[in-house]
């Protein structure tokens, strides 16, 4: 008889772990709290608009191909990818914006205009970043990071030195470029990792490599198409997905998790894989004595920012916007200070506007625009309606000044989303949006571990454990944990 695995949570990591385990012969059931799979990448439809609720940037297409390829499939079996050109626009002021085109040569031309010699230095930068991408994405992120010895081979140790883990991204990039705007462009992908460039290891220039050489993509229909594809594949492999099944407890007897309890019933398990937020599972679903970490540990973690989001349906097109628009028209230093050093609602935040209807007519009624606005903010803030409204008007003033027309008067649908929604919907620790920041002290074996220290058959996956936040790392996290479960609990290798 197949061993029974209960996976908690149908986010990217839970779906990935479940599919891989079912493929290896386990009998897998996912228990998902919400009425829809996808976790932070859920979607909703309203008045003819289709909104992706979380991720909007499709980077590292190779990782998605690797994922589906594991099961003999291709992304094109499920969804249609288009490459965006320009990849994105950076707004420096109402009359001042730079489009980042697709293709290295085109980007070189933009760089050269901003700083003489920068096109050649970009190639030098990409050469070292290519090595980091190769070692980082093809080797390091696949390590379960359970033991230091995993990293002890001479080759990997040499690689660690070449990866620049002990140098900050901020000082690394300044060896190549001096123009402030150019530096901002290069530092932007690092913000995805949830820490400032000064606190992020230079190893993550692999993000620039991915973005510049592999491009920015979009799955037609929206990012949730990835979730739909993963659900379909999971079900093809025999995974049972039970929606509206919030887990309330993991029952442990003599160090073995043998039952998972929901409000709808109890599920017996030989192995449990927790894909819900790590801190929630560790602190709330286990009885004291079986927890990996105490409150002090969790309080001392550096979280990636949370977000204040707005989903807007606009009853006309907004010509000046591109698909991805980054508003870098205020001081990043002050905003970062108000996220990390002195957490508070930001004085003059940077923000991001996505308009997927620029690429995809299916996500808005004809002649209308689908807008998603994201303001990165510190975790753990109160988010009352008045505060949300204040920021809505603050970013709208800047957005309207940039596009040169009123948008507010044409908003026919509006929904906001912030900390309290992340907590209510995902049991998110401190209302986090993207998990833990990728600082040096929260990398690899220094992250919350993927296996419980006290419950022998309990594993963790997802953005709070290895390898980290983001859609590609969450997919990898699920595959890595499935390998570890298989090593210890058998079924087909
Ligand atoms: C606003 C936003 C924008 C983002 N933008 C990008 C982007 O552009 N590109 C990118 O690559 N990444 C992006 N990310 C990050 C990316 O979305 C996440 O890293 C990834 O989705 C995390 O997946 P996960 O499976 O670890 O967690 P989740 O998606 O949170 O999945 C966990 C699941 O567990 C469920 N759950 C929680 N508690 C319980 C319980 N008690 N019982 C049962 N189920 C439970 C939740 O409902 C959820 O479905 C973004 C994230 C956010 C929030």
Textual characterization of the structure:
- The protein is an alpha/beta fold.
- The protein has three domains: 4-80 and 221-301 and 436-489, 3-Layer(bba) Sandwich (FAD/NAD(P)-binding domain), CATH 3.50.50; 104-214, no CATH class; 302-426, Guanine Nucleotide Dissociation Inhibitor, domain 2 (2-Layer Sandwich).
- The chain has 15 helices and 19 strands.
- The strands form five sheets. It has a seven-stranded mixed β-sheet.
- It is globular and about 65 Å long.
- The site of flavin-adenine dinucleotide has 36 residues, from helix 1, strand 14 and helix 15.
Task: Lay out the secondary structure.
Blueprint lengths: L3 E5 L3 H12 L3 E5 L11 E4 L2 E4 L8 H9 L11 E3 L4 E6 L2 E5 L3 H11 L3 H21 L15 H9 L6 H5 L6 H12 L13 H10 L2 E3 L4 H13 L3 E3 L4 E7 L2 E7 L2 E4 L2 E4 L3 H8 L9 H5 L6 E9 L9 E4 L4 H10 L9 E4 L14 E9 L7 H19 L7 E7 L1 H8 L31 E3 L10 H19 L4
Parallel strand pairs: 1-2, 1-13, 2-9, 6-15, 13-19
Antiparallel strand pairs: 3-4, 5-8, 6-7, 10-11, 11-12, 14-17, 14-18, 15-16, 16-17
Helix pairs in contact: 1-9, 1-15, 3-4, 4-8, 7-8
This protein binds flavin-adenine dinucleotide.
Please tally the helical runs, counting DSSP H or I stretches of 4 or more residues.
15
Tell me the domain tally: 3
Derived structural class? alpha/beta
Strand adjacency order, main sheet: 7-6-15-16-17-14-18
Terminal CA distance = 16 Å
CATH topology of the largest domain: FAD/NAD(P)-binding domain
Note the overall shape. globular
Strand content: 15-25%
Quaternary structure annotation: single chain
Q: What is the CATH C level class of the largest domain, in words?
A: Alpha Beta
Which CATH architecture of the largest domain would you pick? 3-Layer(bba) Sandwich
């Amino acid at each position: 008889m197949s061993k029974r695995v209960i996976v908690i949570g149908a986010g990217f990591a839970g779906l990935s772990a479940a599919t891989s385990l079912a493929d290896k012969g386990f009998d897998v059931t996912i228990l998902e709290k919400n009425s829809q799979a996808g976790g932070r990448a859920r979607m909703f439809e309203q008045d003819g608009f289709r909104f992706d609720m979380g991720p909007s940037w499709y980077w590292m297409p190779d990782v998605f191909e690797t994922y589906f390829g594991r099961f003999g499939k291709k992304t094109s079996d499920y969804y249609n990818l288009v490459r965006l050109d320009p990849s994105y626009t950076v707004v420096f002021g109402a009359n001042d914006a730079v489009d980042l085109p697709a293709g290295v040569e085109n980007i070189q031309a933009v760089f050269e205009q901003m700083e003489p010699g920068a096109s050649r230095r970009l190639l030098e930068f990409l050469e070292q970043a290519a090595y980091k991408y190769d070692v980082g994405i093809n080797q390091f992120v696949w390590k379960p990071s359970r033991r230091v010895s995993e990293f002890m081979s001479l080759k990997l140790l040499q690689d660690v030195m070449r990866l620049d883990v002990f140098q900050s991204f901020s000082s690394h990039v300044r060896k190549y470029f001096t123009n402030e705007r150019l530096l901002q462009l290069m530092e932007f992908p690092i913000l995805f990792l949830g820490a400032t460039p000064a606190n992020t290891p230079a190893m993550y220039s692999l993000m620039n490599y991915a973005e510049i050489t592999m491009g920015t993509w979009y799955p037609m229909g929206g990012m949730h198409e990835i979730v739909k594809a993963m659900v379909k594949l999971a079900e093809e492999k025999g995974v049972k997905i039970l929606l509206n099944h919030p887990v309330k407890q993991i029952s442990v007897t003599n160090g073995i998790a043998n039952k998972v309890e929901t409000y709808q019933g109890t599920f017996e398990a030989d192995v449990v894989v927790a894909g819900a937020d790590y801190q929630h599972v560790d602190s709330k679903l286990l009885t004291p004595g079986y927890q990996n970490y105490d409150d002090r540990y969790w309080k001392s973690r550096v979280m990636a920012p949370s977000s204040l989001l707005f989903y807007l349906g606009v009853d006309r097109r907004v010509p000046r916007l591109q698909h991805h628009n980054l508003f870098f028209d205020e001081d990043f230093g002050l905003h970062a200070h108000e996220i990390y050093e002195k957490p508070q609602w930001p004085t003059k935040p940077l923000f991001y506007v996505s308009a997927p209807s620029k690429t995809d007519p299916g996500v808005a009624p004809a002649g209308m625009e689908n807008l998603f606005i994201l303001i990165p903010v510190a975790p753990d803030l109160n988010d009352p309606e008045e505060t949300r409204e204040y920021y809505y008007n603050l970013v709208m003033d800047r957005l309207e000044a940039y596009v040169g027309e009123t948008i507010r008067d044409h908003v026919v649908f509006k929904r906001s989303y912030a900390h309290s929604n992340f907590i209510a919907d995902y049991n998110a620790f401190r209302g986090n949006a993207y998990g833990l920041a990728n600082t040096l002290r929260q990398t690899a074996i220094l992250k919350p571990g993927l296996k419980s220290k006290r419950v022998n058959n309990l594993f963790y996956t997802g953005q709070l454990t290895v390898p980290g936040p983001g859609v590609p790392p969450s997919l990898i996290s699920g595959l890595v944990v499935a390998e570890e479960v298989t090593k210890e609990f058998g079924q087909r290798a």
